Amino acid sequence: MNKAVAISPGKVILFGEHFVVIGSKALAMAIDLYARAEIKESSWPSEIISKETGIKGKITKDLKILGPKEIEPIARLLSVIRSWGYNLPGFKAIISSDIPISSGLGSSAAIASAFSVAYMKIIGHELDKKNLVTLSNEAEKVTHGNPSGVDSAAVVYGGISLYRKGEGVISNINELPRNDYSFIIADTGVKRKTYLPVNDVISLSKRFRSILSLMLDAEDRVIELAYESLKKGDYETLGQLMNINQGLLNSLGVSSREIEEIVYEGRMAGAVGAKLTGAGRGGAVIVLCRSDTENEIINRLSSLSSWVKKIKIPPYGTHLV
Length: 321
Ligand code: MEV
Prior knowledge:
Order of helices and strands: EEEEEHEHHHEEEHHHHEEHEE
CATH class of the largest domain: Alpha Beta
Structural class: alpha+beta
Bound molecules: (R)-mevalonate
């Protein structure tokens, strides 16, 4: 029987969330938490089972959904693939993921891209990274409304991607230049929908057009310097830039008390940089620290977070296994 399995890492946004929606670049990094899609060719209606959430649903050959709305993104992927001229085989898909949902860590983008890679394998075709980002982002439109595409790009490319909406991935670093610094994620445990803060930032940018235009320039400069610092291995500068970026995000109104508490506790425990990652108002905080301070920071953040994890950066994005 025709069968394929693909995995995709999750992601954090190091710099540029929200600003990327309204025009700046973003710097996003894959993380070693994974979504997995296992697909077997079968008859229609096709069946989708999500292991962790217990969600089950079916999709008919004419792409009607029989089941919960959570499977809509998969129907959108199938509809785009069909619009590209492919015949769609029926299937049974089992989705699993260790990426927390609604925490800004790319769980929906990882599931969409892992599903897409495995399903295209069943069809007998491999998409290049650019088309895979475009396809996965279609599912993201169902989930998030008006995504910039940075989440899909980060999980598809792996490593660290410099991205701009409309342009795609401008460059990609697969390996960090040194390993005496660590990245830690601390989750506030507050779940939220990405599109709400995104819509608020878009409204703010219309109301205070001239101020936002200056902030956008500042953010682009922060990201240019951050990218240079990252390539040189100058993590002290990188951390300071993360702190500046957190200030800008706070000005956009997407931080929260829970985020700020983790950010400040992390900095007081010795972090060189700490900021929210993703849409904000909950979700996760990304912390950069010297590796010899990582245990102290993890300990101190544990009391404020639903979970804390040191992350590694997988060099590969979504791929077949
Ligand atoms: C979400 O991970 C990142 C945002 O910038 C939204 C987007 O880019 O689509 C908040």
